[in-house]
TrEMBL record:
Database matches in InterPro entries: AB_hydrolase_fold (IPR029058), Peptidase_S10 (IPR001563)
Signal sequence bounds: 1-21
Protein name (Swiss-Prot/TrEMBL): Carboxypeptidase
GO biological process, one term: proteolysis
Entry keyword set: Carboxypeptidase, Glycoprotein, Hydrolase, Protease, Signal
Keyword Signal: yes
Keyword Membrane: no
PANTHER family according to UniProt: RETINOID-INDUCIBLE SERINE CARBOXYPEPTIDASE (PTHR11802:SF3), SERINE PROTEASE FAMILY S10 SERINE CARBOXYPEPTIDASE (PTHR11802)
GO MF annotations in UniProt: serine-type carboxypeptidase activity
Gene3D superfamilies for the chain: alpha/beta hydrolase
Length: 511
């Protein structure tokens, strides 16, 4: 399960905002039926909404918007609420015709994490306080996000059951209804149907965006919404995608991480001068071609690979990875990622991060096969946890004694019958309007960039859909948007993807 990130993925740059810069926080009713405040209790009210009015300046333009922090029920077959799902919904208020206004529905991953990461670090109107490379700084807080996509699309962030403020309400509620690849997809599709109906968004162009395990979720949702809810999408955005149920066992699985190793070694200046002197984008294509044309065939021969050829392959792997030929040969050309995170900077006394190898950690001992902890995840939780609690409770006025769960109790998670990549392909084949964009960080070791490319290639083995599939790489990790430059570029790529995937007036959905 190496490619499944334990963290949803999201984070971005946020500084403390002054009292003068704070947005308006007027709580207003939208309807008697929909607006119910939460209670100061550790018991969740499954159907609530608190509305506040704000504005944000995006790309030099002032954008007024309404924020709804609320819960909406999940019902059983008898109409009884068995869970309350927490959400944040941002709607631009100076738009007269919402039928043409895109709606972006956003998930993070884990499984077991809420939508905090992308909400306050990537696409949302508010940004947490970190430095330009994504490291935490104090004071904790939030500020405006000048790169948010709220200028061109309304955004819904959903926290699945037992994440954030969402809760399964009934002790006896069947866990299999919520905690598994296909169960998760099924109940969330029903929930989205209800939300779209409540907020009159059936006419709007619709997009799903998921990060990490959220990419598994939205890939499955694309088909489930289409087949079971009769809701058709314009786009799916996969940020740091998982394997999506696409098989890559054996030599392919062993080889595909090498380009990521090369990127990590380049960042830490662990390569020889001939490579280190080149730009990252100049060396990666070379490593990718070696991986496909030489490394996979070599590993496929196993113990029958000629000794001279084995040593030549190990030498090239060492040249590209920053490791020694000796340790590569000791691993039979198959170096596990956990060992790589421990080994690359071992002589300097550091480990590198799993989700973002730019981050360095310090272990109790330099010896060992894997790092003691995930340096990047500790750093991110340091920044995100205070920021989201400040934001939801103080700015969005969701006043509750519930704990906001950054990682919730959702295990064991049933990963059986994960066909989400094939689900996405089927949805694209049946819907000529559906486009897919993939975003990857070069320094992500949990859902590495070359595995993401491989998934894209395997999504469409016949090549008939490739004009609707695109991939973008960024010089950061799992949460590529934490780096200031990639926050700007990544959002602009999403903005262009949305613009380009909306059909022209009168354009029919047909081949």
């Amino acid at each position: 399960m190496r490619k499944y990130a334990t963290l949803p993925c999201l984070l971005a740059a946020v500084s403390l905002y002054s009292a003068q810069a704070q947005p308006k926080k007027t709580t207003t009713n939208i309807s008697n039926a929909l607006t119910t405040p939460p209670s100061r209790s550790v018991t969740l009210n499954p159907d609530t909404a608190v509305v506040t009015m704000h504005d944000v300046t995006i790309k030099g333009q002032k954008v007024p918007y309404k924020a709804i922090a609320g819960t909406q029920p999940v019902w059983d077959a008898d109409g009884k609420a068995i869970a309350g799902i927490f959400y944040n919904y941002y709607e631009r208020t100076d738009v007269k015709d919402r039928s043409t206004r895109p709606l972006v529905i956003s998930f993070n991953g884990g499984p077991g994490t809420p939508s905090v990461w992308m909400q306050i670090a990537y696409t949302g109107p508010r940004l947490l306080n970190i430095d330009d490379e994504g490291y935490p700084v104090q004071h904790y807080g939030i500020r405006e996000n000048p790169h948010s996509i709220l200028d061109i699309a309304d955004i819904l962030y959903i926290d699945p059951a037992n994440t954030g403020f969402s809760r399964v309400l009934e002790k006896d509620a069947p866990k299999e209804k919520f905690f598994g690849v296909n169960a998760d997809i099924k109940y969330l599709a029903e929930w989205i149907n209800t939300f779209v109906s409540r907020h009159n968004r059936w006419a709007s162009p619709k997009y799903l965006i998921g990060e990490s395990y959220g990419t598994t979720r939205v890939s499955g949702l694309a088909l489930e919404l289409q087949n079971a809810q009769w809701m058709y999408l314009n786009g799916v955005i996969l940020v740091s995608p998982t394997e999506l149920g696409i098989s890559r066992n054996g030599p392919v699985d062993a080889a595909l991480t090498l380009p990521y190793y090369a990127a990590t070694a380049w960042y830490h200046k662990a390569l020889s001068n001939d490579l280190q002197s080149k730009d990252l984008n100049a060396i990666l294509p070379e490593v990718e071609q070696f991986t496909i044309n030489e490394l996979i065939p070599a590993i496929s021969q196993g113990g029958f690979l000629d000794d001279q050829k084995r040593k030549a392959i190990a030498a090239k792997m060492a040249h590209y990875s920053g490791l020694s030929e000796k340790v590569i040969l000791q691993h039979n050309l198959n170096v596990p990622a956990q060992f790589y995170w421990k080994e690359l900077l071992r002589d300097k006394g550091y480990t590198v991060g799993r989700l973002d190898s730019r981050y360095k950690g310090i272990d109790r001992a330099d010896a060992g096969e894997s790092p003691d902890y995930n340096a990047e995840l500790t750093s991110w939780l340091h920044a995100f946890t205070p920021a989201i609690n400040i934001y939801l409770r103080e700015e969005l006025k969701f006043d509750t004694d519930l704990k906001y769960m950054m990682f919730g109790p959702v295990h064991p998670w049933d990963r059986n019958n994960d066909n989400t990549g094939e689900n996405l392909r089927q949805a694209m084949a049946a819907n000529p309007w559906l486009h897919v964009m993939i975003q990857s960080g070069y320094y992500d070791g949990a859902c590495d960039y070359f595995n993401a490319k491989y998934s894209m290639w395997q999504l469409d083995p016949g090549g008939k859909l490739k004009d609707r599939l695109s991939w973008y790489g960024y010089r950061s990790g799992h949460m590529m948007y934490l780096r200031k430059d990639d926050l700007s570029t990544g959002n602009e790529d999403i903005r262009n993807f949305i613009r380009n995937s909306i059909p022209k007036p009168g354009q029919a959905a047909k081949y």
